[in-house]
Amino acid sequence: QQIRKHLSRVMEDINLPVEIDGANFYVSASCGAACYPADGRTSETLIMKANLALYQAKRERRSVAFFSDKIAADLLRRSRIRNALPKALENNEFELYFQPQLHSFSSKLLGFEALLRWHSPELGEVSPLEFIGIAEESRMILPIGSWVLRKACAALAALNRKYQAKYFMAVNVSGMQLFVEGFVEEVLAVLAENDLAPEQLELENTESILLSHECSTIQKRNTLFAHGVRIALD
Fold it and tell me: Of 149, 172, 221, 232, which residue has the fewest beta carbons closer than 10 angstroms?
């Protein structure tokens, strides 16, 4: 408890504004801590565990984090997910589920949302909440995102042919995909390959992407919208 109070005072002092030439500048910091002897008895072990706690503090945007068995387990899980992701696509471990989209008043079926699921022989069922962020960090989201887009559009085309319908498909798109050159061309090509009209595809972005002022992502969204592709807020 004393260590926690001491570190909190240190962090408060770091957060105080620094005045230079009449202007105030603010510095932020994160701290990871490990305690002797509970977390280790050698300097190497304590520094390693303090670094793990620091990584957790940065991820959770906390000023101070103390090492715990949970932190170690979480980081081990993330490491295993990161190592297994490249093999998952090759080994056909991903599957798409299709959630119906209904009219709010008539309950008429309008379309579907493609939901990605990962069935890992090594890790079991891995939630998208766990692996999507790691896929973005490792850039594996790019091939995974392309796979989802192609599979979802192919499935939609098959459904529309079978039932003589014009359903639409909603597909989640990572912000990283919007930064890739050729993304617009890829989307339009997939639509053409499956004989789908642009308005039969809805690309769902997170609010952080829609509010981004990055010119290239705005331009890509506008271009797709101009072709008739729906843009939705997830």
Answer: 232
Query: Do the beta carbons of residue 173 and residue 208 sit within 8 Å?
Result: no
For residue 212, the tally of other CB atoms under 10 A from its CB is 17
Each of the 234 residues of the chain gets a pLDDT tens digit; together they read 788 888 988 988 998 999 898 899 998 899 999 999 999 999 999 999 999 999 999 988 888 999 999 999 998 999 999 999 999 999 999 999 999 999 989 999 999 999 999 999 999 999 999 999 999 999 999 999 999 999 999 999 999 999 999 999 999 999 889 889 999 999 999 999 999 999 999 999 876 565 555 677 888 989 999 999 999 987
10 vs 68: CA distance, rounded Å: 21
CB-CB contact of 57 with 107 (8 Å): no
Peptide bond into 128 cis (omega under 30): no
CA distances from 28 to 10, 63, 136 (A): 11, 8, 25
Cα gap 136→133, rounded to integer Å: 5
Residue 56 near residue 74 (C-beta atoms within 8 A): yes
